[in-house]
Amino acid sequence: MKKIIIDTDIGVDFDDVLALMTGIALQNKGVIGLDGVSVGTARENASACASAVCDYYGFKTDVPVFHSEKIPCDNTNVYATAVAEKFNGVNGEEDTVRFLRRKLAAAEDKVTFVCIGPLSAVSRLIDSDGDDISPLMGNDLISEKVERFYCMAGNFSYLHPELYTGKFNYVPEWNVVQDIKAAQNFINKVRVPVTLVPFEVGGKVLSGATLPENSLAGFTIRHFYKTNYKEFPGCFLRQSWDPITVALASGLDIAEVSENGTITIADDGKTDFIPGKGNHSYAFSKYDEKTVADMLDSLYAELVGKK
Questions:
Q1: Residues contacting residue 306 through CB under 8 Å, at least 6 positions apart
Q2: For a Cys-Cys bond, which of 48, 78, 104, 180 suits 89, CB 3.0-4.6 Å?
Q3: Beta-carbon contacts of residue 248 (< 8 Å; ≥ 6 apart)
Q4: Does the pTM exceed 0.85?
Q5: How confident is the model over 54-91, as pLDDT tens digits?
């Protein structure tokens, strides 16, 4: 069974909640072992929000706090505080990087690391020094204990014109742009295999139709739409970038993965893929949008049915 760690920037976009639900549902089904949830954002109450989601859907865990300088998106708090207050979330006490070092050092088998936000925390983890938890530097600890990273990051739509067309084909992806230096540091230094799950894979997959209004997820998506009513008019559905990343990392047949090669990140945040030498890859769509949405909704529904 795969052991999974999820690093989230929960509190701005709603798909982080769907991603945690995906991980918890897959753990309940015995597909994965969810070994921990961390936050890679300095947003106020992000830790409490993530812990509230986990607790509500039956995964009891402490979620650490990311002590770092804020990146631009950390100043936007769409629902983290609202969820924490309504559902009694409690902020953790441990620092995210220390938490991740502890989880990796204690792991008996290699873990799969899933990043669904900016790569700020894992960049700091790579550069962390040896300590009382482990004498290993961060990148050495990762090389010893991580099997693969799956990161919701990048845009490779221009490589698949048969699948993706439109104005976003050459646009830098949001998670990368929030902390370009961290993304570059991560992709340039990490030694274990990395699969990026780019913008285009989840950009047209709308999921969340099964979420009742009185549930935590139902409350959260309504709060998200109420806060962003000018930008996101319509029904209570959301693009599925993050849950697809968790599902793919967990072994679900939900997307294709490219051959190996090398991914580069330019100073403006644009990503490129050079096939051949390297241990990087990226995901691209395998099924139509409705098929993928139905797969995800079926997982959310399993949790909804227990509340």
A1: 58
A2: 48
A3: 150, 195, 197, 254, 255, 257, 283
A4: yes
A5: 999 999 999 999 999 899 999 999 999 999 999 999 99
